[in-house]
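Tokens for chain A. Residues wanted.
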């Protein structure tokens, strides 16, 4: 059970209103142009927000791990876009900002954010493969299932034939398991009391857009 003070509650309330209002607006095609290009900034602000609440003891080890996640995930995404073999045939739109090799630079940050959040959400459980590897990876795949239905509407990316291949989820699961296994081996306990809130509100954000 996390302990939140009044300031935490106020911050969470403001952020919830921001996400909910944004989701309702983005659910209507005529409003989406007003939010063009905001996604990278929201991701970066999310990282900044979490950094204020981070309670991980092994900071240097965590930073090295996250840098590794960002680089490896970006390289995999570049290969995926170029070949269509990794995740399936897909391409990125303009919504995620500056690209290198047709791949947004921010995409590595997205992987870092999801690895961090899914790890921190289960930090209070005992150190075991179930709580450190399997369940965090399952959370990431569940998140991706919802996100994939919404991302094309937001101009983030699109799939060939407008169908998300099962291969995408399989590779997502593999990468999530790989990164969380590495974290388990490195014995990095990620702690942040805002992780559950941010993961939940972002999941809720995509769900609202999906049903509006």
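Reply:
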């Amino acid at each position: 059970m996390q302990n939140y003070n009044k300031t935490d509650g106020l911050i969470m309330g403001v952020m919830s209103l921001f996400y909910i209002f944004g989701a309702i607006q983005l659910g209507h095609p005529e409003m989406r142009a007003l939010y063009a290009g905001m996604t990278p900034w929201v991701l970066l602000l999310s990282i900044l927000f979490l950094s204020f609440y981070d309670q991980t003891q092994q900071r240097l080890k965590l930073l090295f791990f996250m840098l590794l996640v960002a680089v490896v995930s970006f390289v995999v995404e570049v290969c995926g876009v170029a070949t269509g073999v990794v995740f399936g045939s897909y391409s990125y739109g303009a919504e995620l900002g500056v690209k290198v090799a047709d791949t947004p630079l921010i995409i590595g940050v997205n992987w870092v954010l999801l690895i961090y959040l899914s790890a921190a959400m289960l930090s209070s459980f005992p150190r075991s493969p179930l709580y450190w590897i399997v369940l965090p990876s399952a959370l990431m795949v569940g998140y991706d299932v919802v996100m994939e239905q919404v991302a094309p509407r937001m101009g983030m990316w699109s799939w060939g034939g407008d169908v998300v291949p099962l291969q995408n989820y399989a590779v997502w699961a593999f990468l999530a398991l790989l990164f969380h296994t590495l974290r388990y081996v490195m014995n990095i306990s990620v702690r942040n009391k805002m992780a559950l809130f941010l993961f939940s509100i972002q999941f809720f954000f995509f769900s609202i857009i999906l049903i509006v």
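The first helix runs from residue 6 to 26. The longest strand covers residues 90-92.
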